[in-house]
Amino acid sequence: MTNPHIADKTDIDIRASADRVIEGLQQGRQAEALRLLEQERQGERPVVQEALDRYVAAGARDALAGMRRAELPEHAATLERLGDALAAPRMPAFSQSTDPTVPNELTNLSQAQQYDVYASIVEARGNRAAFDALRHNDHSVLLGLRQENSTLASHDGRTTGTGVYDDHLVVLRRDAQGERSLHVADLANTEPTAQYDHHAGSNGRRLFADSQRPAPPLEASGRFDHVTRPRQIEGRDADGDGIRDLGRLQPGTIEMVDARHGADQHLSFRPSAAAVANGRDMVRRDTDADGYFTTADIDGLEALNNTFKIHRGGQWNTFSAGCQTIHPDRFDEFMRLAYANSNQDRWQYVLTDTTTGLFRDVRVEVQRDQAPQREAPDPRRLDIPDEERRPPAQRPHGPPEYPRDRPQALRIPETAEDAYLERFLAASERGDLEARRSATHEYGSQPRVQAFDRQGRESLAFERALEAATREVTTSPVMTQDTQPALARGV
């Protein structure tokens, strides 16, 4: 099989081409500029076309908004496409695998072209600080691309709650001469794992990570009884039920500073004091204990704190209680490029969800419906210390368990007639992350799926606005005690 994303080389300068279109739009030559955009997109692979659209949509927001207000029917389709370009992006199919059958949309693109693919996402999804940071020479910018997973997910499909590396973290760099380069950590994680969740229970000896005091005895909640080796309890009790709730970063831009992490004190990042001060609603906590972070989590939005780091994970465990973690095989190169300028002391980190929302929802439902296999009880399960706290000489050794050697508990439903869904579930059964990712990307790139995605994003935006309005009203001094419970019930 030939890699379906291998294409001929292209000499397009994505940034320069987009800038010519932006200049025409800003100078009032709208029709000419949009024709130029279509010419530049012609014949290019989708990942390049999407980057052009994102750059133009982000760089000419005001001019494009004026055209939409003018309701020009001859440009309606292009304007709609450019509007969609600012929404959550499709994650480019990229892997550092040497297997030629693994899809890679960046094949035969130069470093500068690859840089522009991801830098355009920063411009579309980041704030002004991120936009400006991309223009600094001798400077690095960080990007996180998240695919939705349950905190109960695990690479091996059996021991739940140890995490999966199916997100991407990217470092984008311009050197002192303005040359563009990047490193894509295609084995990364942006979500916490259930092994740190208080809902996994306590036998009276499990410790709280912050105080190092034992948590009172507690039965595991629902599916969390499958977390066979819970670690020290992280999180915060956001909804006041006496049980701490894990949290994760919300999509947005966060200023990071350098930090150290773990027993070996390796280089890492943590939110700056300024980011914390301006980080309202930048953390969402799983208050309903279903393993997902949604608007169903009542009282789930909180302000940012500086514990949400970017650091190295483990070989077969992401070791995330809310941090962004990178597989050891990708971490050192990521940090080398991020720290290339020893004088840089601030990094803009842009985190975004990715599309494939409809297919993601199918995956979520399958994950919820299928119970994972459970290991035999281990009498030491609550006493195993966090590997991050062990001296290196005391860390356990032994043969790793490769994901493809472990059978999955998923089964293909009889109603799963869609070829992509069948491929996704079959790959999950094999533990084949690359094949699963390929099926997800290809499904999400279909126009009809993107249309459903757009409708889903509009619905989600409405829900978030309603949630914010409800929160504003319920905290108002004029709200009566009788009305608050009614609003909480959705009346």
Describe the structure.
The protein has 491 residues and is of the alpha+beta class. 34% of the residues lie in helices and 13% in strands. The strands form two sheets. Strands 6-5-11-1-2-3-10-9 form an eight-stranded mixed sheet. Strands 4-7-8 form a three-stranded antiparallel sheet, with no helix packed on it. The longest helix has 28 residues, at 447-474. The chain starts with 13 loop residues before the first helix and ends with a helix.
Keywords:
491 residues, alpha+beta, 8-stranded mixed sheet, 3-stranded antiparallel sheet, 14 helices, 13% strand, disordered C terminus
From the spread of the alpha carbons, the general shape counts as globular
Order of helices and strands: HHHHHHHEEEEEEHEEEEHEHHHHH
State the secondary-structure class: alpha+beta
Number of strands: 11
Cα-atom radius of gyration: 23 Å
Q: What is the strand arrangement across the widest sheet?
A: 6-5-11-1-2-3-10-9
Termini separation:
57 Å
Tell me the number of helical segments per DSSP (H or I, 4 or more residues long): 14
The residue fraction in helices comes out at 25-40%
Sequence stretches where pLDDT stays below 50 over 5 or more residues:
371-417, 478-491
Q: Strand share of the residues?
A: 5-15%
Name the average pLDDT: 81
The biggest beta sheet is recorded as: 8 strands, mixed
